[in-house]
Specification:
By secondary structure, this protein is mainly beta. About 15% of the residues lie in helices and about 35% in strands. Helix 3 (about 445-460) packs across helix 6.
């Protein structure tokens, strides 16, 4: 028994020694949260918050408690024992109150029914909001006037934000760190970002964060807010129309919203809009009108279509209009010389390089120092403008009307009585004057054309328009008409027994044939005379005079001028024309005759020759048609023409 008791005592003493040794070791063992003192918070989908902290080797478990900041006593809002270095905080904890969270390293010792709990002396202790930093409702508003983009969002005063940017889905980059609830970005040269190109998308988002000691609380990133170049563009075109020369303009306008620009043109006051070009957004915002017809009124309209259409209209940008008025234009006009003229390399006509052919029309490219620049696809040269006849329809256009009847059916009569082999016939020399498109060639010497313009403009201002029945008349036509009239002079005008002869009806025993028809060189042969009538612009009707035009009788004499004929003569004299006593319709430029003594031209003109327009060069034949779809030798060179008639490269 004694021995057993001794054994038991020894065992008890040994066990006690182990107990106290183990307890001492437990109490003396290091228990700390370590040097890293930061916790992490991460919001979960159900509203709870995952909290984590750095762990230490040898730690058994952790004790976490959450209290309101400054609440030292009383029951904690939440506490938990955690086996891992993390814990899930319930969604019921206050989100917008400042909380104190303390994490203790916790060690438990149990032996012989004894259980002891030990907490570290250096818990991790942080004070913060539990709510995750976040920005909401991120939006972007662009201002075209200032070239800025304003980003706005809703957030907390305690939060800060990292602003990220990317272009067209590329790798994002950090633009900066922000606070508050808005920021303004300057876009363009010298700004925060360059102006987006067409097709670019600039996307932005915010990543919220909060600067609280010891807390790592990754914020919630916003949805992207984006804008494009169009968002930074205005809705005002600022259309301008600048003259390039006397018949063409350049339209320019500002870049605006929209996917394309529509350029339209209206001719005259009562015309309709015709689309002449469509300019895609991103291309140069410029439109060349080309050479417009002379003495015309034109309106141009540019609108922006597609893209961000305005709520109150069908267009992205409302149209803007510009007006253009043309005057006389030499550009691309046909011209003929009245005599053999030298071709010169310079406008001062010092270096002669050739001779201008008289058998074809030439194309006028411009004027300089009293010289016309004429050209073909092979080159250009200068000629003396004073001895060139300009085609009036090309030069003055609709400022006048043209009825060169001698080219289709002569209206020469003797007071209403037709003249055999003359009335209703094509007068010799006019065979090529009528064009296939219904127009006419109407050449007039260049200095005389200036006077005609002055008269026509004065008449137009008062509601009248000149109708031109004849301008240049070749000498062969003058002689043909005179010779035919001479054959008829003694013939009776009808089969009646007491019928007057053509001479009697024509002269009234006061005039002669020479008063009405030239036997020698006419002013028309020199390109310095015109036969004209007056048209009322409002009605389109020709004004009645004391006789028909080209009435070869004494009734046409200016001595018998009625009010209308007198009015016409007044306008023409004011412009520098002289009259012919036997014809109310005939006006001649004596000043040019006396100063330049232009020679006469015997043969008629044809439209044959090179012509140019804004599309390129064409060659017009004597019958008025253009060469198409063929190769042709012209002046020793072979030229090829497309099916549209234009010269191929």
């Amino acid at each position: 028994m004694f021995a057993a008791a001794v054994i038991l005592l020894a065992a008890a003493l040994a066990l006690g020694g182990v107990f106290f040794t183990q307890r001492r070791r437990f109490m003396e063992a290091p228990l700390t949260m370590g040097a890293e003192r930061q916790i992490g918070l991460e919001r979960q989908a159900d509203g709870s918050v995952r909290m984590d902290w750095p762990g230490e080797r040898g730690e058994d478990r952790y004790y976490l408690e959450v209290r309101r900041a400054g609440q030292a006593e009383g029951e904690a809002l939440f506490s938990a024992l955690c086996d891992e270095s993390e814990c899930l905080l319930p969604a019921s904890l206050p989100q917008e109150e400042t909380l104190e969270m303390r994490v203790f390293a916790r060690s438990v010792w149990e032996m012989l029914g004894r259980r002891e709990v030990r907490l570290c002396d250096d818990p991790i202790s942080v004070t913060c909001l539990l709510a995750s930093p976040a920005a909401e409702e991120l939006s972007v508003a662009c201002d075209a006037a200032s070239s800025t983009a304003t980003l706005s969002w809703k957030g907390r005063a305690e939060d800060r934000y990292r602003l990220y940017f990317r272009r067209n889905g590329e790798e994002p980059r950090l633009l900066g760190e922000l606070s508050g609830e808005s920021t303004v970005l300057r876009i363009g040269e010298g700004g925060d970002l360059p102006m987006p190109l067409r097709g670019d998308t600039y996307a932005f988002w915010l990543e919220a964060y909060r600067e609280e000691p010891g807390v790592r609380n990754p914020g919630v990133s916003t949805e992207e807010a984006a804008f494009t170049r169009e968002d930074l563009l205005g809705v005002t075109l600022n259309l301008s129309c600048t003259a390039e020369d006397d018949s063409s303009w350049l339209l320019r306008w500002d870049e605006t919203k929209g996917e394309r620009y529509l350029v339209q043109r209206m001719d005259g006051a009562e015309g309709t809009w015709q689309t002449v070009a469509e300019v895609p957004a991103g291309e140069e915002r410029v439109f060349f009108t080309g050479h417009l017809p002379p003495f015309g009124e034109f309106r141009f309209r540019v609108s922006a279509e597609g893209g961000q259409v305005q709520p109150d209209g069908p267009c992205a940008v409302m149209p803007e209009e510009a007006s253009a008025s043309t005057a006389a234009t030499l550009a691309n006009a046909a011209a003929w010389s009245v005599t053999e003229l030298g071709l010169y390399a310079d406008a001062q006509r010092q270096e002669k390089i050739g001779v201008l052919p008289m058998d074809r029309a030439v194309c006028v490219l411009g004027e300089e120092n009293g010289s016309l620049l004429v050209g073909t696809p092979a080159g250009s040269a200068y000629v003396d403008a004073n001895y060139c006849m300009i085609d009036l329809p090309d030069y003055v256009g609709d400022l006048c009307e043209y009825r060169i009847t001698n080219s289709v059916a002569s209206i020469y009569m003797v007071h209403g009585v037709p003249m055999e082999n003359m009335t209703g016939e094509i007068i010799t020399g006019y065979e090529a004057v009528a064009l296939p498109d219904g127009g006419y060639l109407a050449p007039l010497l260049y200095p005389t054309a200036q006077k005609l313009i002055a008269a026509a403009l004065a008449l137009e201002a008062d509601g009248y328009r000149l109708r031109i029945y004849d301008s240049f008349r070749p000498h062969i036509a003058t002689r043909a008409v005179y010779d035919q009239a001479m054959k008829l002079m003694e013939e009776p005008v009808s089969d009646e027994e007491d019928a007057l002869t053509y001479r009697q009806l024509m002269t009234g025993d006061s005039y002669s044939l020479w008063d009405f028809l030239a036997a020698g060189i006419s002013k028309h042969n020199r390109g310095i005379a015109v036969d004209v009538a007056l048209v009322d612009i409002a009605t389109g009707e020709e004004l009645r005079m004391q006789s028909d035009i080209h009435d070869l009788s004494w009734h046409a004499a200016t001595a018998y001028n009625d009010a209308n004929a007198a009015m016409l003569a007044g306008y023409m004299r004011a412009a520098g024309f002289g009259t012919l006593f036997s014809e109310w319709w005939h006006f001649q430029d004596m000043e040019t005759l006396n100063s330049l003594e232009p020679p006469y031209r015997s043969q008629g003109v044809t439209p044959e020759g090179w012509r140019r327009d804004d599309r390129g060069w064409r060659y017009r034949c004597a019958d008025g048609s253009f060469l198409t779809g063929e190769a042709r030798e012209i002046d020793g060179s072979v030229w090829s023409f497309g099916e549209d008639g234009y010269l191929l490269p």
